[in-house]
């Protein structure tokens, strides 16, 4: 199937690179939000699968990601969290204008799941269904991380790098895999997928201090357990995770994510956990199971 690449003008004159997969007689449009230190083309097989099965797919790069990023892995000097949310709103508005009355479904993976959850705190009425893949568990220390990030930004400057912040954000994940061959084995049991990620110059480029400020701020906002006003409480949400994904925090962390969404007011939450999978469930050897589960959920 075919797709087109477009450019959307976003806040602060940032140009978002977006792939649009249009399906004849589409049932809905799926807005995908990818994870940190990766890029949209890694989702091509998944997007094409949804397109073939009757969905438009809108697949953007996050700012600071992908081949067109002005500075790879740098989201913004400041206010990066707000800018990422505004970007997603701009993409949603584009979908609404182009595809009119068709419902819009969200798909967020990893950091994309954090962005999606923060977006739903204000914009849940804009979406019909949401899938959260490799969903990061809430962290009660996220407020401390926000403060620490600001201190480091004052010392290192926004475009600088900090081993401290990188270790804080990602260090526990590699340690969660016993006898790991690489520091990125936590991504996947599929060794070829890990190898490709490591070899890809657009993947795994260390976040700048400014980007970590955005990430920690989003994580902190995501952790709010207050009821959300004007909530689309009946919107179906599907939580998908590999059983051995350290990002989700294990059984306890996955339960905490579900409980948090329920405290926010969502009432139609389901979950599937896949044995023999880690973080990148769309790239594991048995990914067809995940593809099919997502398809069946979007067809509800």
The CA-CA distance between the termini, in Å, is 24 Å
The CATH architecture comes to 3-Layer(aba) Sandwich
Placed side by side, the strands forming the largest sheet appear as 1-2-4-3-5-6-7-8
What's the Cα radius of gyration?
18 Å
What proportion of the residues is helical, as a percent range?
40-55%
Describe the structure.
This protein is of the alpha/beta class. The chain has a single domain, classed as Rossmann fold (3-Layer(aba) Sandwich), CATH 3.40.50. Helix content is 40%, strand content 16%. It is built from nine helices and eight strands. A hairpin with a 5-residue loop joins strand 1 and strand 2. Helix 2 crosses helix 3 and helix 4 packs antiparallel against helix 7. It is globular, with a radius of gyration of 18 Å.
Secondary structure blueprint with pairings:
Blueprint: E1 4-9, E2 15-21, E3 28-33, H1 44-52, E4 55-60, H2 80-99, E5 104-109, H3 111-123, E6 129-133, H4 142-156, H5 163-175, H6 191-199, H7 209-222, E7 237-242, H8 250-264, E8 269-274, H9 287-298
Parallel strand pairs: 3-4, 3-5, 5-6, 6-7, 7-8
Antiparallel strand pairs: 1-2, 2-4
Helix pairs in contact: 2-3, 2-7, 3-7, 4-7
List keywords for this structure.
9 helices, alpha/beta, Rossmann fold, 8-stranded mixed β-sheet, 300 residues
